Amino acid sequence: MTTTSSTPATRQGPGESSTAGGTETGAPRRRGSVSRILNRMPRSAWPLLVFVLLFVIGGLIRPNLLSLDSLIGTATFAMILAIASFGQTAAVIQGGIDLSVPNTIAFSALSYLTLIGPLGPVGGFIGALLAGTLIGVVNGTIVAKLGLTPIVTTIAMNGLLFGVVLLTFKNSELTVIPQFLTDITATKIDVFGLRVAAVLPLGLALMLLLQFVLSYTGWGRSLFLVGSAPETAKLAGQPVDRIRIAGYALSSLLAAFSGIVIVGFYAQASATMGSEYLLGSVAAVLVGGASIAGGRGSMIGTLGGALVLGQVATLVAVANLGSNIQQLIYGVIVLIVIALYAKRGRD
Amino acid sequence: MTTATVRPRQAGALRLWNAPGITRLRREGAVAPITAFVAFFLVYVIINPGLLTRFQLQTAGNLVVPLALAALGQLIIVLVGGIDISIGAIMSLANVVFATAMVSLPVPLAILAGIAAGLACGLFNGYLVAYLRLPAIAVTLASAFIIGSISREVMDRPGGGITPEFYLATSGELLPFIPISLFWLAVIATGLWFVLQRTALGRHIYGVGSNMDSVSAAGLNARGAQLAAFALSSVIVSFGAIMLAGSTITGDPRSGDPYLLSSIAAVALAGASFTGGRGSIIGTILAACTLGLVGSLLFFAGINSYWQYVISALIVISVVGIPVIWKKIYLALRKANS
Q1: pTM higher than 0.95 for the full model?
Q2: A164 shares contact with chain B (CB less than 8 Å)
Q3: What ipTM did this prediction achieve?
Q4: A59-346: what CATH class?
């Protein structure tokens, strides 16, 4: 793989100081604090900055876009994409990619709706999440123990799940959504005097939790280590295989969670409900500043990436350009982002 | 193992196993997919002997040829150590450009237009990967969005001006006995084999995949070879798109979408190394034939055809995984013996 010649400081994500920072105080500290901030802060802050910029540009074109309602609308749409992309973030950070996200979403959504019959809403919820985690454990075991490429493994898993979904759920259009699920996703609630869909605070809480795990727990840091330098991690005595498997398990667990959230929010499920998240989740993660080669990325950045894509969707809808042009702009944005990050990485 | 203890019959088998052609296939990882195909083909013929009739063979050929060509395109990118997420989109674009051009232009010009559209995509990807040194997976992810969008702009719903004569020439009964689509596949694959195995460019492509720095250090144009690989790949994929347009007699802006995942699966099944430098043309074609026919085998066996997704995945995982497990067991045994 291509290892860009970046310094240790740029390779580590935000908030690394608690665990890894203590061991190596020499080299990174000598650089000025300004360059340290420039090198470390922007990764996750830039997408948010671009989002604000796009939001203001939207307001200049159409003044009524510069409202809180419009912001909440975009943020809600973006939060769904972000929740679906958090798992992908974990997979990319540990040096892989999870292309089984789409059908993990469909599988968990449909199995949730099937399981609430015998197990009740909460039992079904747990059951679907466990099934999702199992998918990730299988993915991770094949990648780590058999040494198959992540892309091939997860594509095969995606195909397998598609078959399982089609074979298992005869009536693939289920629309009976339990009240419990609607309450935590689609119901409008008051947060600081604002009427927002419940999925927004739910996603924010999830993001904070995941970012905390990534930044401040040893396990979270080990994902970055395995992603950026697997050989070093092995030499340092890290259980690399186990960390990778756990990374894929987290990815699928979160994809399964997002499947349930999507079902709750849109109140419908089908076998192909996840297909737009195949490339969408990877795009959000890349725009959020993660490195496709692994070892870099953050949940905040992914949310920022999803917000950028969401705002583009809003602007395209307002300009009446159609979803086709939206896809084109998504592609151009991803291209610009990877070109910029690659340039910064080489400097 | 010493040759003295090997009995003559085994020695014969061993000699065959070590023959130059077989050794090359082994090195390229093609033995497993060829074995898998032979087993699959036997099962297929036992369940449905009608495969060997003219009509069924032709239908099967039309089904697998676009996939085989898409997989060959993917193989070339994999050989230089990359991966092409935009392969389905390139296929869609070449497909709709060709179908649109067929309305007003003569056939050769329409074919050229389709290939030029695909080639432009390949050069775009190749330039970004080879000269701007961006990761192939990220570049092609972005261009998958862009190219897919362009192809839906060219043609927003299935249509185009493909004539029955063109169907006859690509997918019909033009030749006696042999399905014409397999003939075209053989022509293109032989051409590709010649470029990859018998020209300097081909050796450079394999070399870049094995070790780009060494190729550069040897004074060869490594980036040029990488760009050429993307260009070559997109041309092969465009041929696949044209064959697909011929067999369905329509241009469809979403026709290439299913080929993204299945082309990668076929290349994986072919035993190619995703770090580059290793992969076999014949292995890839047979892997594509296997994966492409799983669905129709289940149909003839009277099994719910949804099983094809499960079975295809299991074939890929087991054919690629079993040699790895085998090697691990072998190493463990040898360690235990010593």
Answers
A1: no
A2: yes
A3: 0.85
A4: mainly alpha
